[in-house]
From TrEMBL, chain A:
Domain Extradiol ring-cleavage dioxygenase LigAB LigA subunit: 23-72
Signal peptide range: none
Organism of derivation: Caldiarchaeum subterraneum
Pfam families: LigA
InterPro entries: LigA_sf, Xdiol_dOase_LigA
Gene3D superfamilies: Dioxygenase LigAB, LigA subunit
Protein name: Extradiol ring-cleavage dioxygenase LigAB LigA subunit domain-containing protein
Spans through the membrane: none
Automatic annotation (TrEMBL), chain B:
GO-annotated molecular function: ferrous iron binding; oxidoreductase activity, acting on single donors with incorporation of molecular oxygen, incorporation of two atoms of oxygen
Native species: Caldiarchaeum subterraneum
Chain ranges of the Extradiol ring-cleavage dioxygenase class III enzyme subunit B domain: 11-255
Highest taxon of source: Archaea
One Pfam family named in its UniProt record: LigB
Protein name: Extradiol ring-cleavage dioxygenase class III enzyme subunit B domain-containing protein
Amino acid sequence: MVIIFRYPPLKHIRLHKLGYSIFRDPDVRERFKQDPYKVMDEFGLTEEEKQLVMSRDGVKMYDLGIQPYIIFALVWQAFGDWPSREKIKQLGYGRSIPQRTIER
Amino acid sequence: MARIVGGAAGPHSPVVYKLPWEESGDYVAEMEKVRGALKEIGRRIGESNVDTILVFGADHVQSFWFGCFPQMMLFTGEEADYSIGGNKIMRLKNNRELAEELLFGLVEEEFDVGFSQEIDFFDHPFTVPLYWILQGADNRDIKVIPFQLNTNVHPRVKLQRCYKLGQSVRRIIENSRRNDKVFIIGTGGLSHYPGTPYYGNVDEEADMFIVEKLREGRVRELTDLGYDWLDATGNHELGSWIAAAGAVDVKSTEVMTYWKAWNNGYCVVWFNV
């Protein structure tokens, strides 16, 4: 059983809150663009979490359990980058979808 | 007596509102067909003198946070802002009186729905289809009841429950002494994998399976699908469609458009009553 849009693990609450705030709050978003480490300190991120955010690697974030909709904020809204068709390939998306059966 | 005069479903991707990147002429033309189908829904709504649209949509952790994330929530305030990517697009009046009837009625029917009388905004799951539909309806003074139905953060509302929710909504509206003419919309889908490593895939075979069931009016057969299958096929947002189909008591479905883009199976349907 594959659940993709999964329950957010509590251990990621600081990261999730940062992503939510970057989406919701223009002030946080602008300040993040100016000085990301200062904002990440405000949200209490660990060094490991800071590295993950700065990697801009949405695939890695997903594999570590970050909620997919927060990944949008942490990768694309935080850094102003929207993944076009060409970028998708460069960034390592397009992974083969999970097995499923269609019973007609 | 209030009544449901019809229903429809369609995508809510922000891309349907505005392309954030350069695309080919073919892509742009296909996207125009999707927008055109949504506007056609609006045109038909206008002809039917609909005064209220009830929208089943699923928040994307934009209106709500994990501090309190509702499975089901009815908006019972007077009016609300509608945004895309957090940017305000429009402000729409709610049919507060009917929303309150629905809230009390649903709890009576053992759907323990939460309510909100004040909210910062509803984002693209509500705004995008409404933007085009209301244009098609010549932006008449149609009131909108937004209904948050969680299909995006696990654990989620099961499809059987979504269908029964729609049926309850229908019963409550039909038993109301109000005179509202209500149209129901389900938003989202079809196959896509936003924010995941699977992004860039579209499970067209699964989409066609769903579309054929809808076309033949065999909606109940879809309600056995679980979130493992729905996630695997990128159809995690189907619950909003099922709730709308349940409310309409759909007999068959007109597929207004289906387009397999590189990142989304875009489909707009009209539920025949």
